[in-house]
């Protein structure tokens, strides 16, 4: 039997099957080790699977079964632009024709594992392909799962003709020519920034904005609106330029270039977070301020919603991340140009009554000696943190009950969309009625109630749970986001004449701290679902039952803690007794101005403003 196998291997070793590593460059396992736990480009994955499929066709046509296909047995050749399968008599064997179908399925199943590894960057069972920060071909995942089922009845030719393999190998880059081969010899991270954990990129904003926030508030309070806009736009634009340039930098420094650009862009957030209140206070009359603040604040969730819609359209594979970075670079540089253009036109049109520069420490003292501001500081900052944490942990909370990533996405979209609508309605009503306190109490109590009921509703299954979650997401978004601009305007009313940058910036900064607090609670006080729990039969957290990394968790303890903290917010808002100091001051000034005009018209001396003494 061994002689037959050796003879057959010699006969077919001239193409995609090799019997020694003498003329090979590196094994696929070595490439993937250098590449990191990231998905390979689709064209490269397709080229690998196509070539190894051809190797299997050669083996199977000679009734030889490999039985040990893995990334350790696949090699890129030195002198040939192809991948080959290392085969030896130690594991290959010749079989009878009546067992050929079953044995072919065994080889194809092993090749399916290789396909999954190339597509996701992880071994099968260690990751949920639906819960990764990268865009992974759904078509390729379905093919890999079908191949690994061990009931694969198609021939290997079916794999070669499959759309994922055939379409990607038709691309010009699918030809592994000499230049491509040389690049692949020194393969590092070609398509994603670095080989380290990509979650660091999203954490950079929180790590930078919290400690740098106080400095940003101080700079904003002494520099005015236009300079604050420039200080916000500059690091954002230069950070985007560095991220775009990272794709042209050396492989060894690419990850650090992206981190540098992300960190620089994060420095813009402390200037952006107080700008809506500052702009509305400086450039808009009292009858339009709440609506102006709403428009400024809602630009953030609207931007998130827009990015979540367009990013998947631009990034169809990991190679397209460069396109996304370049697009963002053009956008950020364009915004910087607009900011420079408008900031250089004419004199500042800030309200003259508010043009006097506020001292930073005095504003701090004014805020934290005002009991109404302290209450707003806690409940509004906590509300921001609760909303952000629910948005961030949505899928993890819902998947143990069988809800998919698509359902979690729909809930997030409904929350943001309804929040934008609710904020505009609340802004118009509050501007017209000046009912800051009543609006804040109503919106906060309803939002806290909806948020608390929402997290517990994630434990329900079926159509009742689905309808309940969608309805609660609408109510939570509509009222939760609407409290944001109303609360910031109320804070400015309570702390007048404190600097708007300080009073609003501190609340937003505290909201970031509360976001970290709630996410930490959800992480620390969640426990793996018991093996006998019925939810293991319906959960949607894992792609396979062997996926321990995405094992479904029970959040009951975390939900109890969050419900108690949220209830405290609902109770505290009842104790609000705000004074509308800014509105009262503006009414007095308006009255004095009208009386001065009337007295001058009648020939009397003008009335002096007592505030000037």
Automatic annotation (TrEMBL):
UniProt xrefs under InterPro entries: FLVCR1-2_SLC49-like (IPR049680), Kinase-like_dom_sf (IPR011009), MFS (IPR011701), MFS_trans_sf (IPR036259)
Residues in a coiled coil are: none
Tagged with keyword Transmembrane:
yes
Gene Ontology CC: one annotated term: membrane
TM helices/strands, residue ranges: 200-221, 255-275, 321-342, 362-387, 407-430, 439-457, 469-492, 504-525, 555-576
Q: Which residues form the signal peptide?
A: none
Record membrane topology: Multi-pass membrane protein
The cellular location(s) given in this protein's UniProt record come to:
Membrane
Q: What terms describe the molecular function in GO for this protein?
A: transmembrane transporter activity
Q: Which Pfam families match?
A: MFS_1
What are the alphabetically sorted keywords of the record? Membrane, Transmembrane, Transmembrane helix
Key word NADP present in the record?
A: no
Q: Give the main location.
A: membrane
Tell me which domain of life the UniProt entry assigns to the organism this sequence originates from.
Eukaryota
The name under which this protein is listed is: Protein kinase domain-containing protein
Record lineage: Eukaryota, Metazoa, Ecdysozoa, Nematoda, Chromadorea
């Amino acid at each position: 039997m061994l002689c037959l196998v050796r003879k057959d291997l010699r006969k077919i070793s001239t193409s995609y099957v090799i019997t020694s590593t003498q003329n090979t460059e590196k094994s696929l396992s070595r490439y993937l080790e250098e590449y990191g736990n990231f998905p390979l480009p689709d064209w490269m994955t397709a080229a690998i699977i196509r070539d190894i499929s051809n190797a299997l066709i050669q083996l199977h046509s000679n009734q030889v079964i490999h039985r040990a296909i893995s990334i350790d047995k696949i090699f890129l050749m030195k002198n040939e632009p192809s991948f080959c399968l290392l085969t030896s008599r130690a594991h290959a064997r010749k079989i009878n024709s009546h067992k050929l179908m079953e044995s072919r399925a065994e080889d194809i199943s092993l090749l399916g594992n290789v396909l999954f590894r190339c597509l996701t960057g992880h071994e099968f069972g260690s990751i949920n392909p639906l819960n990764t920060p990268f865009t992974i071909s759904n078509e390729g995942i379905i093919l890999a799962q079908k191949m690994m089922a061990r009931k694969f009845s198609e021939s290997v030719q079916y794999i070669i003709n499959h759309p994922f393999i055939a379409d990607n190998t038709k691309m010009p880059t699918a030809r592994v020519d000499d230049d491509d081969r040389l690049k692949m010899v020194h393969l590092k991270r070609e398509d994603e920034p670095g080989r380290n954990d990509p979650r660091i990129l999203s954490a950079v904003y929180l790590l930078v904005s919290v400690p740098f926030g106080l400095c940003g508030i101080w700079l904003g309070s002494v520099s005015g609106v236009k300079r604050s806009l420039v200080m916000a736009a500059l690091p954002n634009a230069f950070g985007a330029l560095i991220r775009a340039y990272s794709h042209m930098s050396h492989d060894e420094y690419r990850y650090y270039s992206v981190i540098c650009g992300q960190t620089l862009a994060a420095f813009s957030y402390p200037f952006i977070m107080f700008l809506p209140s500052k702009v509305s206070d400086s450039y808009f009359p009292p009858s339009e301020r709440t609506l102006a603040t709403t428009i400024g604040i809602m630009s953030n969730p609207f931007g998130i919603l827009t990015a979540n819609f367009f990013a998947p359209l631009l990034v169809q594979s990991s190679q397209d991340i460069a396109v996304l970075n370049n697009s963002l670079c053009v956008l950020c540089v364009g915004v910087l140009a607009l900011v420079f253009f408008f900031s250089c036109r004419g004199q500042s049109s800030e309200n003259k009554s508010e043009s006097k520069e506020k001292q930073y420490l005095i504003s701090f003292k004014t805020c934290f000696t005002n009991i109404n501001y302290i209450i707003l500081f806690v409940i509004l900052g906590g509300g921001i943190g609760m909303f952000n944490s629910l948005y961030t942990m949505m899928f993890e909370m819902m998947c143990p009950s069988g809800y998919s990533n698509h359902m979690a996405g729909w809930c997030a979209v409904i929350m943001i969309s309804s929040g934008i609508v609710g904020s505009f309605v609340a802004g118009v009503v509050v501007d017209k009625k000046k009912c800051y306190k009543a609006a804040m109490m109503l919106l906060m109590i309803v939002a806290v109630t909806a948020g608390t009921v929402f997290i517990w509703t994630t434990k329900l299954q079926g159509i009742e749970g689905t309808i309940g979650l969608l309805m609660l997401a609408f109510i939570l978004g509509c009222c939760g986001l609407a409290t944001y601009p109303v609360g910031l305007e109320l804070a400015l009313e309570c702390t007048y004449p404190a600097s708007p940058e300080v009073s609003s910036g501190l609340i937003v900064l505290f909201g970031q701290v509360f976001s970290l607090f709630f996410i930490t609670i959800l992480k620390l006080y969640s426990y793996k679902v018991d093996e006998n729990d019925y939810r293991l039969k319906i959960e949607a957290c894992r792609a396979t039952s062997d996926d321990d990394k995405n094992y479904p968790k029970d959040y009951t303890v975390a939900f109890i803690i969050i419900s108690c903290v949220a209830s405290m917010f609902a109770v505290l808002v009842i104790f609000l007794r705000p004074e509308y100091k800014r509105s009262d001051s503006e009414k007095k000034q308006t009255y004095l101005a009208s009386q001065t005009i009337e007295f001058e018209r009648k020939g009397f001396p003008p009335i002096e403003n007592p505030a000037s003494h």
